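Fold this sequence, please.
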Amino acid sequence: MSSLGRRIADLINDQGKLKQSKVDDLDSSETLSVINTEVSAGVSYFDTLDSLPTTGLSAGLKALVRLSSTEGRLYVYNGDGWYNANTNLNTSAPVWVTEPSAEYDIADSVTPLTITALASDPDSDKITNESFVSDSAQYMVTISNDSSVWTFTPKTKSEIAAQVAAGNLTDSNGDFIYTFKWSDGFNFISKAVTISYRPSAFIGTNQYFGDRGFSIAGSGTSGNTQAIHYFDLTTNSNSSSFGNTTGSGSGQRASVSDGNRIVTTGAGYNSNNLNLEYFASATLGNATSSGNTLLGSAQGYCDYNQCAGSDGLYGMYVGGYAASGNGNQKAQTIVIQTAGNATNYNGVANYRRENSTAVNNATRLVVIGGQFSTYTSPSRTMDYFSFQTQGNATDFGDIATQRHYTAEGNSNGVYGTFAGGITYHNGSDPGEHIQRITIATPSNASDIGDLGFNNASSYALRTRGHAGCGNSTYGYAIGGGGQTPSNNTWYGFNRSTYVHKWNMSTGGNSTSNPPSLSAAIVNSSGASGNAS
């Protein structure tokens, strides 16, 4: 008996069409004989056409698909698609006109991804779309299809955060498989495509560095305050009242933002003020309790004097005051758009830190300076954590001078800047310097300018406890104060209404008037968000 290939070839005339004589003279017993003798060995069996595999294939694979209890149809994979090998031949499978790529990235949380996957059938048979997707996609994107064009509209960062909190996604970054498939009823062509989406990445230059700056609580001239002040970072306007926090304390809070929601910690000295509070940056009003931070001597956590940062989805709080009286090494995280308690971050800083500062980009938080144990032991080290991959901190470099109580850091996604701080050099270093790092490149900090307090009487008033915030261009140091140094002993708080700003990219000395705070304050916490 001749081979299967020869018998199939004998069915086609020189115009590439099925010979009518072969249809008229078709002997079903002969067809059965061909199938039994030629393809029974090495054949895989499937209950439906949709069950045919689409990955891990090689040319020459054979599959028999069940049509009914008494009928089946043979398919052969030729390297491009599955072809129906039944003698009732539809001779050609669909082919790609515009073949999709193997991988795509969704650029950001506001820009839909479009993919064209156009196929045609050489026999001019009608083809149908039988594409399908993995389960996780429903939590990440909304999918629509118009003819051969697919649109993948990403979920927002807050929607992704809600799915992470609900346990439907393991984390904020991931991928899913979309299989594009066209069928003519007998044969089909398909391609599995990996689509990745990282909603926690920075989007543009102003995604969650908003143009509305905040000073949150702190210590005023009449004692601790719950007041939240805000000002426009684009117009240099003076601050206005925004609302109040739910609690107060003389320790410095730590605050994080995703551009729309600000989440701040409690600030009590041994007061068990564990509250996490949040407010919408665009809506004037009081903060709302969100959950609790982690605290207790057994855990080694703290409730004030931490540093913090955000990748736009997660907020991370590091260090702070510990029950032992020393700074601690612990880190904890929150999902900014989801009310709830903070959770342990599985990693620690390289050193115990209290009154440190931090800057960040989309992937890492850099912890800067602080004090190890006592007020006279400030640090010059920097180390960094990853937001998405938990683990111990890695050394980043050193700042120019040992200092703590530095202004909260500012970041524009490329650079991180920070200013001021106490040095305990008994007047030899006024602590006025503005320093900068490139966040993606571990290295020592460089001096890019001064806050302008260039004599002992000035720096004693204004070098510590600033709040910090920024937008895509400027870094800000808000309020702040000082203590008069005498033989390395510090006393006599002074408080400031100044708001200093500097260009994070070009550097230079700060300018300070306007804007200004409506009330003198020290140890407030800063953040920025969108005004609408």
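Helices lie at 4-9, 20-24, 28-38, 157-166, 456-462. The domain at 95-197 is CATH 2.60.40.10 (Immunoglobulin-like).
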